[in-house]
C-alpha cells in the first residue's frame, strides 16, 4: 500500500524507522526488512547510523534484493545544519551511498548553533539550555530545501514536528509545498486537529513513534506505552492480532504513514503483517476514545528547554 504525495511520488504506507538502532545491527536489520517486503526506510542525520544504512543498501542493490527505484528512503536535516542545508544533504547522500533522496525533512522547526556539517550536535549554552540560533528563519531554511529539488538531489521535501501554526506558515511561504509532516502520533497522542489540517491541505502525515514509544521511550523518558492498554488488548484479541498490529492498522486507516522501529527479527515481520485485516468502525471509535494527549518523545530532557511549551 502506498500514498501518493503532493509531489506526485508514491510513499509506502509502512516503513522501518532506524532511530536508536545500534550500528552493528543495522546491516542485518535493513537486509532482513527488505527480504520481508519493506520498501520504505526512515533515517536521519541525527541517528548517527546513515553510513551503516548506506553499506546495507549498497549490499542489497549488489545482491539484487531490490532496485534503487523500488525503495523509498527518507532522511532529515538536523537543527545545527539549518544554515548549511545543501552541504548537509550532500553529506547524508554520501553516507547513504545514494544519488538522490526520496524525501528530505526538516527534523525540528528550530535552528541551533552550527557545529560542523553532519556532526548533529545539540550545543548547549552556559546555562545548560539549547543554543538556539535566532538569525536563521524557518522560511530561509525551507527555501534552501526547495533548492535541493531543483538540483535533483531530493524528490520530495517535508517537515517534521511542526504544529498547525508552523505548518500553516510553511504553506504560505513555500514555492514547493511540504509533502509530509512527520509527527509523534499514536492512540494516546492522536493530534486529530493537526492530522486533519495537514491532510486537508495535501500534506501526508507520517507517524513517528506510532506504537507510543514502547520500551525505547520508557527507558529514555519514563513514559507509558499504549501497548499495555487493556482496551487495546481486547481489540487485538478480537482480530487474533497483536496489540502492535492493531495500533499500526489504526494508523493506516487514519491515512497516516507508520514507521515503527524494532531491532527484533520477529517484530520486524509482525509489524509488516498489517494488510490482511481491517478494523471495524466501532473499534476505530474505541481507539479514538483513548486519546490522552500524551507525548512520549520529549527532547527537553536533553535540551534544557521544552520547545513544545
Structure notes:
The protein is built from twelve helices and ten strands. It has a single domain (2-303), classed as TIM Barrel (Alpha-Beta Barrel). Helix 8 crosses helix 9. The strands form two sheets. Strands 3-4-5-6-7-8-9-10 form an eight-stranded parallel β-sheet. Strands 1-2 form a two-stranded antiparallel ribbon. With 309 residues, the chain is an alpha/beta fold.
Topology:
Layout: E1 2-4, E2 10-12, E3 16-17, H1 23-36, E4 40-42, H2 50-62, E5 72-77, H3 85-96, E6 101-106, H4 138-150, E7 154-160, H5 164-173, E8 180-184, H6 192-200, E9 204-208, H7 214-221, H8 230-239, H9 243-253, E10 257-258, H10 265-272, H11 281-288, H12 300-303
Parallel strand pairs: 3-4, 4-5, 5-6, 6-7, 7-8, 8-9, 9-10
Antiparallel strand pairs: 1-2
Helix pairs in contact: 1-2, 1-10, 2-3, 8-9
Amino acid at each position: 500500500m502506498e500514498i501518493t504525495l503532493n509531489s506526485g511520488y508514491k510513499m509506502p504506507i509502512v516503513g522501518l524507522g532506524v532511530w536508536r538502532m545500534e550500528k552493528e545491527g543495522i546491516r542485518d536489520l535493513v537486509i532482513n526488512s527488505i527480504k520481508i517486503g519493506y520498501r520504505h526506510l526512515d533515517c536521519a542525520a541525527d541517528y548517527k547510523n546513515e553510513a551503516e544504512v548506506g553499506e546495507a543498501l549498497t549490499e542489497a542493490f549488489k545482491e539484487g534484493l531490490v532496485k534503487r527505484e523500488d525503495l523509498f528512503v527518507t532522511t532529515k536535516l538536523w537543527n545545527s545544519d539549518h544554515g548549511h542545508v545543501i552541504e548537509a544533504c550532500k553529506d547524508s547522500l554520501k553516507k547513504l551511498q545514494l544519488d538522490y533522496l526520496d524525501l528530505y525533512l526538516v527534523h525540528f522547526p528550530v535552528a541551533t548553533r552550527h557545529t560542523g556539517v553532519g556532526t548533529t550536535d545539540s550545543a548547549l549554552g552556559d546555562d545548560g539550555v539549547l543554543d538556539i540560533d535566532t538569525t536563521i528563519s524557518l522560511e530561509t531554511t525551507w527555501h534552501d530545501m526547495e533548492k535541493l529539488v531543483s538540483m535533483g538531489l531530493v524528490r520530495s521535501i517535508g517537515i517534521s514536528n511542526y504544529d498547525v501554526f508552523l505548518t500553516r506558515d510553511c504553506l504560505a511561504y513555500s514555492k514547493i509545498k511540504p509533502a509530509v509532516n512527520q509527527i509523534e502520533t499514536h492512540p494516546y497522542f492522536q493530534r486529530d486537529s493537526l492530522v486533519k489540517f495537514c491532510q486537508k491541505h495535501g500534506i501526508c502525515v507520517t507517524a513517528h513513534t506510532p506504537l507510543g514509544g514502547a520500551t525505547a521511550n520508557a527507558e529514555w523518558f519514563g513514559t507509558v506505552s499504549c501497548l499495555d492498554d487493556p482496551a487495546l488488548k481486547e481489540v487485538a484479541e478480537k482480530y487474533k492480532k497483536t496489540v502492535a498490529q492493531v495500533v499500526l492498522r489504526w494508523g493506516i486507516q487514519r491515512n497516516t504513514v507508520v514507521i515503527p522501529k524494532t531491532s527484533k527479527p520477529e517484530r520486524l515481520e509482525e509489524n509488516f503483517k498489517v494488510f490482511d485485516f481491517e478494523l471495524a468502525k466501532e473499534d476505530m471509535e474505541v481507539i479514538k476514545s483513548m486519546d490522552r494527549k500524551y507525548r512520549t518523545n520529549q527532547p527537553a530532557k536533553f535540551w534544557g528547554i521544552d520547545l513544545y511549551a
